[in-house]
Amino acid sequence: MNKEQKDKELGALISLLDEPDNRMFDQIKEKIFTYGIDAVPSLENAWENSFDNLIQQRIENIIHEIQFDNLFVELKKWSQNNYKDLLHGFILLSQYQYPDLDKDKITKQISQIIQDIWLELNNYLTALEKIKVINHILFDIHKFTSHKSNIYTPEKFFINNLLESKKGNPISLGMLYIIIAQSLKIPVYGVNLPKHFILAYSDEIKNEKFIVVKKDEVLFYINPYNKGAVFTRKEIELFLKQLSLKPDKKYFNPCDNITIAKRFINELLTSYEKLGHQDKIYELKKLRKAFDK
Fold first, then answer.
1. For residue 141, what is the DSSP state?
2. What does the DSSP 8-state code read for residue 100?
């Protein structure tokens, strides 16, 4: 079947979305699903030209299900093949809430920040001096800051909102910081510390999917939620003691991007649980399975 025939058949199926019989409607919907993400533009056009609330609601639900299924597939591909590109992963995760977000705009905004930092760097700077440059450009010049009230509201997780409002929570600010640093070949990685996502400056770039770093390979730690403040292992040990947790190497060592993505989903899920959004809770639990082997 050529494209013209497919478009004609899809149009015919969409015209039947006012079907009153639920069993027949389900069959029509399943047939539309076979077109995948390619069906979305035609569905959106049909929504715009309809004045029937039932049809519009049905179209909205179908579009959401198609986009969700497509996102699941794309996240699985990312986790298996493209996990080193954290920006791509961050964009995909944000498409859960904003499927039509402008990826080019996001890339340009981040590229500008990276360019501004690059202009201030040179080969003679120490590790600490490089972090001071990043902090100055990111927090003083571009005015990024932590969102102090309702720290885990869902809006603060997504990359488009972070770039527009310049306010984020520990995980969103941390992911942005990692993306920027690694783009500049500065070895900054996430650390999966309970209750607070932090960063580690490693002694060298780690390219493995699962990063194993010796104790002396982490030079220092960074708190992106506190304007990139630098601290040591002792502060983490004290923090774990306050939480009544035994020190574990995973609380000190850099983690891989898949672990970061899982944490993003888990924290977003917790946010929606506090708000009582059962539909979001169900979907995020399902989306989390995209990272299963």
1. I
2. T
CA atoms within 13 A on the CB side of 200: 30
Percentages helix, strand, coil for the chain (3-state, rounded to 5) are 60, 10, 30
State which H helix or E strand residue 286 sits in: helix 278-288
Provide the token pair at 103.
């990826």
Domain ranges for the chain, please list them: 3-81, 86-291
- Residues 194-229 pLDDT 10s: 999 999 998 754 444 444 444 458 999 999 999 999
The answer, yes or no, to whether residue 152 has pLDDT greater than 90, is no
Of the listed ranges 9-13, 62-66, 73-77, 134-138, the least confidently predicted one is 9-13
